[in-house]
Amino acid sequence: LHRIRHTNLTAYDHQDLPFDQLVELLNPTRSMARHPLFQVMLTVENNPAPSPGLVGMTASVRPIDIPVAKFDLTLSYTDRDPRTGQAATGSIEYATDLFDRESVETLATRLIRILEAVTAHPEQPIGDIDLLSAEERHQLLTTWNNTAAPVPDATLPDLFQAQAVRTPDNIAIIFQNTQLTYAELNTRANQLAHHLISTGTGPEDIIALALPRGIDMIT
């Protein structure tokens, strides 16, 4: 937190640098789809907004709803106004081509979680902060990872042999312009197995392979 504060305050030493000169020096890759220098902006309003002074009239500042996002993401924070007691507010403007409302709401929730953790323990590394809530962690590790399935009590060769019996004419392997059915692949595998047996190879013996990528590597 202290390092980020120092970096941001130091940047003010160059706040008068013309934008055109900055773009010329950096020479970024130009694209019509995004800003050349940055795509995410953070704005902080920590000065009370001036009240319009119109003689004989009461006026107030009202926000204008602009339906076009200038950047991919814009995070805006307005500090509490001590004159009116207006509470601090925050908002996120986003490009709907890149984000939907649910994604941005999740982003906002996690940002708040980071800010709360940093202010509570400013000495802890950013990498130690847990972005996920208990519900999100359960969803990732349990709900979405519930891929358990019954596994037959058989070896891989036995399972392949059974599949070859069930669907002998189905395509088992394709490489470039060559393809083999389960029956053809099973025949080639059995031929190789019998050849190895004839050379004295037995169970648990190590067989070295020196083959290019292709069907022969599988058989």
From TrEMBL:
<protein>
    <submittedName>
        <fullName>Non-ribosomal peptide synthetase</fullName>
    </submittedName>
</protein>
<feature type="domain" description="AMP-dependent synthetase/ligase">
    <location>
        <begin position="160"/>
        <end position="218"/>
    </location>
</feature>
<dbReference type="InterPro" id="IPR000873">
    <property type="entry name" value="AMP-dep_synth/lig_dom"/>
</dbReference>
<dbReference type="Pfam" id="PF00668">
    <property type="entry name" value="Condensation"/>
</dbReference>
<dbReference type="InterPro" id="IPR042099">
    <property type="entry name" value="ANL_N_sf"/>
</dbReference>
<dbReference type="InterPro" id="IPR001242">
    <property type="entry name" value="Condensation_dom"/>
</dbReference>
<dbReference type="GO" id="GO:0003824">
    <property type="term" value="F:catalytic activity"/>
</dbReference>
<dbReference type="GO" id="GO:0043041">
    <property type="term" value="P:amino acid activation for nonribosomal peptide biosynthetic process"/>
</dbReference>
<dbReference type="Pfam" id="PF00501">
    <property type="entry name" value="AMP-binding"/>
</dbReference>
<dbReference type="GO" id="GO:0044550">
    <property type="term" value="P:secondary metabolite biosynthetic process"/>
</dbReference>
<dbReference type="GO" id="GO:0005829">
    <property type="term" value="C:cytosol"/>
</dbReference>
<feature type="domain" description="Condensation">
    <location>
        <begin position="1"/>
        <end position="141"/>
    </location>
</feature>
<dbReference type="GO" id="GO:0031177">
    <property type="term" value="F:phosphopantetheine binding"/>
</dbReference>
<dbReference type="GO" id="GO:0008610">
    <property type="term" value="P:lipid biosynthetic process"/>
</dbReference>
<dbReference type="InterPro" id="IPR023213">
    <property type="entry name" value="CAT-like_dom_sf"/>
</dbReference>
